[in-house]
């Protein structure tokens, strides 16, 4: 710990020294270049602390992407933003339409069950998305996205230990406007989105935004000749801003979305020796020389397979929120009332082979209600905010698994007797969360500002589940027999706090330090449980709350007359009872892999982030973001349901590459007729990462680069634009998730990342 603290202090000292050495030159620079000039870096205004502030002036590690940047970079869904934020990973374990696994600075939960929200909150217009299935959605007509790093325990509705991602929609204005954007590219991929905005009368403004994404998908089904894994999404959002009086503003948000498409199939990699039937070595598996339990060897091409399931994935979501802001003389009162509903069914071709080896039907429905009250006030020397929060969610799961159903076809009649099975699991989970929170920041000396915040949380969770199993008997499957049933209740209380110091060395140079604690409530294993009732009861033991203490130091600077921005942060997280997930292999013949959700006693995360933005030439904007991460388990022995203890001490946390790097450049070239050609490029790099806590060498993605590019022509006045783009220009092959089902099925599941795509796009403003 002492050694790492020394590294932290050296990092900050270096940043302060660089900033201080540049300050004199900056102050001596001529001219009045400010944020309104095109030749300087623009101010980025965020609401990370529930008020509008320059991102450079707040003692918080936050990355922000504005709506135009999102559109220029081809961001169409919530998981796309990970390509542009250091130390952020977002993967979809079932492909398009599935719930995301979000990891910020190594903090995440790779549980594929649909009842456990991860340690990173997802907010849309200040409304927490409680169901994991609702956290993957289309992004359109956004003002910006903010990624907050570190525990969010004093301001945000749901306490989180890792961070928060906040999506902010563009609000209605009283200036009539409209826009439509369309793109078309590889794999018959298209997008159409737009908005209409303007006043309905003197006190009501409205904005209607829409989006439609379509694609055949880049995975090829050799059985049918069709492509799979595409999209067929529709979404509409309507905002009404109503001002009944000069002191009261209401914002009504009504939204609806739907997706219906062939699901993204896995790439199957066999793990059994075709000669002996035993397990292959790691080298043999990586050489693609092995087969699954049926003896099937799939195509080595990452984007092709023989898939026997062609049912569609369906996702439907809708909701409404009402925000009221009432201004008194010295205080602003805010109320946010929200209702969210989502439903997802996913017919997973789990084995990705022609016969029925393993198939799972995932079904989840969630309905949630939340209410937040806030009061805020103060002035330039002191600001405060406090509030109350309540959330109630009911979540239903309906899951069916089918295993070895074609065993008789492969090994002869009777081979499936007592082995082939149909299993069912239904559950109902109810979560009630209550919280009181507050934060204040005030000047304690000239240029020195102190932030203090606290929160008390009480959560109640009930979980009722029933499991049933039917084994093949005389070539048929009789009525399922109940194998487990439970009705559990869990309550957690916790207090969390934050303290930060921010010192203004110069008007554009800030250094800060902070200490924050975070809390994530306990929960239940919502996956398939063991067929043995004793083992199932073990799986149903609730996991305990996880807690973290996070230390951070950093600096934020605008230099060289605001043509250079250099920010940095170093952090250290100390975890207790970190919640971790593992898919435990079968231990006995006839058993299936089972989900294990447990607490790791300790974990530590150390890291550094650097951000460099510059405008070296008129029209040229460049940025470089670097992230370094060392995220590891402490002393931890993982015990399976029926397996012996496995020492995982020192293992790297899932989805935590040691280094991430993101570089972007945009060069706007003025033409003689006042039109503009803009050339944009972005590159992202990630070192090796594991997809499970066991650091399985078969569940790893090596280091890789992704390169995107765009060229866009904008007409005089910017009324319309036309461009071409490419994503993954070099055709890098990589995976975004993996699962080991070697025992007893004999294969590894891999989710392929998107290959190279090219396309054209156009935008028209009215």
Give a verbal description of the structure.
The protein is built from 6 helices and 41 strands. It is mainly beta and 766 residues long. It has one domain (2-371, 378-765): Beta Barrel (Maltoporin, Chain A). The strands form 8 sheets. It has a 22-stranded antiparallel barrel. A 5-stranded mixed beta sheet has the order 3-8-9-6-7. It has a 3-stranded mixed beta sheet with strand order 14-13-18, with no helix packed on it. A hairpin with a 6-residue loop joins β1 and β2. The longest helix is centred in the first third of the chain and has 27 residues, at 2-28. It holds the Pfam family TonB_dep_Rec_b-barrel. InterPro entries: Beta-barrel_TonB, Beta-barrel_TonB_sf, Plug_dom, TonB-dep_rcpt-like, TonB_rcpt_CS.
User: Termini separation (Å)?
Assistant: 58 Å
Q: Which range best describes the helical content: under 10%, 10-25%, 25-40%, 40-55%, 55-70% or over 70%? A: under 10%
Overall structural class, as computed from helix and strand content, comes to mainly beta
Radius of gyration: 26 Å
By CATH, the superfamily comes out as TonB-dependent receptor, beta-barrel domain
Can you summarize the main beta sheet? 22 strands, antiparallel, barrel
Compute the number of structural domains.
1
CATH architecture: Beta Barrel
Share of residues in strands: over 45%
Counting DSSP H or I runs of 4 or more residues, the number of helices is 6
> What would the principal axes of the Cα set say about the shape?
globular
Q: What is the multimeric organization of the chains shown?
A: single chain
Instruction: Name the CATH class.
Output: Mainly Beta
Mean pLDDT figure: 89
Task: Say what the CATH topology is.
Answer: Maltoporin, Chain A
Low-pLDDT sequence parts: 1-36
Number of strands: 41
Domain TonB-dependent receptor-like beta-barrel: 300-728
Main location: membrane
Motif (TonB C-terminal box): 749-766
Signal peptide: 1-25
């Amino acid at each position: 710990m002492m050694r790492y603290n020394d590294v932290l202090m050296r990092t900050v000292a270096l940043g302060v020294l660089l900033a201080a050495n540049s300050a004199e030159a900056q102050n001596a620079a001529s001219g009045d270049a400010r944020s309104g000039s095109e030749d300087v870096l623009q101010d980025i205004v965020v609401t990370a602390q529930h008020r509008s502030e320059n991102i450079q002036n707040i003692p918080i590690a936050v990355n922000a992407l504005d709506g135009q940047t999102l559109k220029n970079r081809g961001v169409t869904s919530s998981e796309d933003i990970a390509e542009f934020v250091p130390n952020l990973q977002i993967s979809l374990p079932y492909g398009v339409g599935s719930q995301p696994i979000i990891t910020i600075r190594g903090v995440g939960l790779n549980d594929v069950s649909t009842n456990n929200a991860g340690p990173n909150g997802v907010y849309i217009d200040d409304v927490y998305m409680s169901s994991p299935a609702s956290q993957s959605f289309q992004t359109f007509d956004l003002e910006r996205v903010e990624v907050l790093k570190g525990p969010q325990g004093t301001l945000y509705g749901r306490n989180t230990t890792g961070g928060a991602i906040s999506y902010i929609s563009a609000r209605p204005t009283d200036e009539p406007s409209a826009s439509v954007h369309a793109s078309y590219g590889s794999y018959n991929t298209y997008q159409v989105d737009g908005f209409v905005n303007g006043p309905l009368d003197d006190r009501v403004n409205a904005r209607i935004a829409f989006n439609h994404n379509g694609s055949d998908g880049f995975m090829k089904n050799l059985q049918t000749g069709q492509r799979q894994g595409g999209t067929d999404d529709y979404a509409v959002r309507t905002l009404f801003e109503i001002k009944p009086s000069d002191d009261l503003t209401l914002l009504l948000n009504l939204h609806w979305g739907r997706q219906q498409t062939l699901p993204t199939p896995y790439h199957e990699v066999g793990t059994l020796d075709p000669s002996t039937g035993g397990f292959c070595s790691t080298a043999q598996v990586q050489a693609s020389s092995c087969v699954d339990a049926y003896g099937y060897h799939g195509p080595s091409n990452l984007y092709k397979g023989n898939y026997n399931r062609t049912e569609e994935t369906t996702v439907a979501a809708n909701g409404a929120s009402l925000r009221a802001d009432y201004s008194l003389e010295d205080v602003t009162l805010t109320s946010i009332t929200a209702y969210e509903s989502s439903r997802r069914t996913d017919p997973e071709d789990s084995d990705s082979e022609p016969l029925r080896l393993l198939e799972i039907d995932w079904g989840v429905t969630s309905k949630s209600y939340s209410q937040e009250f806030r009061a805020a006030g103060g002035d330039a020397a002191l600001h405060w905010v406090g509030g109350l929060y309540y959330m109630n969610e009911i979540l239903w799961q309906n899951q069916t698994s089918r295993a070895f159903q074609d065993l008789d076809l492969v090994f002869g009649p009777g081979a499936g007797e007592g082995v082939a099975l149909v299993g069912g699991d239904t559950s109902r989970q109810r979560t009630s969360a209550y919280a009181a929170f507050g934060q204040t920041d005030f000047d304690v000396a000239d240029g020195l500002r102190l932030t203090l915040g606290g929160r008390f949380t009480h959560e109640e969770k009930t979980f009722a589940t029933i499991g049933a199993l039917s084994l093949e008997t005389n070539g048929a499957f009789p009525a399922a027999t109940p194998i487990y049933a439970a009705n559990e209740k869990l309550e957690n209380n916790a207090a969390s706090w934050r303290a930060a110091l921010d010192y203004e060395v110069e008007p554009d140079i800030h250094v800060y330090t902070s200490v924050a604690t975070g809390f994530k409530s306990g929960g239940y294993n919502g996956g398939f449980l063991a067929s043995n009732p004793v083992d199932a009861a073990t799986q149903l033991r609730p996991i305990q709350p996880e807690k973290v203490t996070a230390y951070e130091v950093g600096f934020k600077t605008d230099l060289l007359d605001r043509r250079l921005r250099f920010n940095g942060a170093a952090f250290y997280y100390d975890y207790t009872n970190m919640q971790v997930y593992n898919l435990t292999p079968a231990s006995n013949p006839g058993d299936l892999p089972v989900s294990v959700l447990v607490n790791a006693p300790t974990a530590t995360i150390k890291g550094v982030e650097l951000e460099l933005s510059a405008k070296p030439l008129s029209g040229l904007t460049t940025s470089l973001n670097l992230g370094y991460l060392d995220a590891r388990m402490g002393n931890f022995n993982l015990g399976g349901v029926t397996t012996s203890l496995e020492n995982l001490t020192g293992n790297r946390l899932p989805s935590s590459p040691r280094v991430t790097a993101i570089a972007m450049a945009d060069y706007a070239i003025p033409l003689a007729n006042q039109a503009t050609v803009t050339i944009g490029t972005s590159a992202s790099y990630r070192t090796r990462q594991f997809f499970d806590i066991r650091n399985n060498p078969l569940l790893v993605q090596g280091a890789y680069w992704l390169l995107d590019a765009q060229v866009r022509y904008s007409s005089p006045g910017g009324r319309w634009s036309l461009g071409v783009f490419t994503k993954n220009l070099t055709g890098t092959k990589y995976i975004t998730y993996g699962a080991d089902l070697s025992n007893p099925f004999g294969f590894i599941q891999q989710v392929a990342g998107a290959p190279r795509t090219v396309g054209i796009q156009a935008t028209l403003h009215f």
